[in-house]
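Please review this one:
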Amino acid sequence: MTISGLKEFFQGRQLPVSIKFSEAEYISDLKLFLESHFTVAEARAGIPTFSSFHLRLEKVKEIIEQEEAGKDENH
């Protein structure tokens, strides 16, 4: 997904303050995480060394989609 597509996904969405990113990683300030990762991902787009910032944004999107799907199933 493009950076602009990811920005659209996160804008206007009720986001949690924190999320569990993996078994060993916990994002305690999701808003700050998104701001910093978008800044780097946009400024360094196309540079392989910084591609992990884009990948981590996509991973957070997937986590949020899974959480939302789980909430829908429970209602």
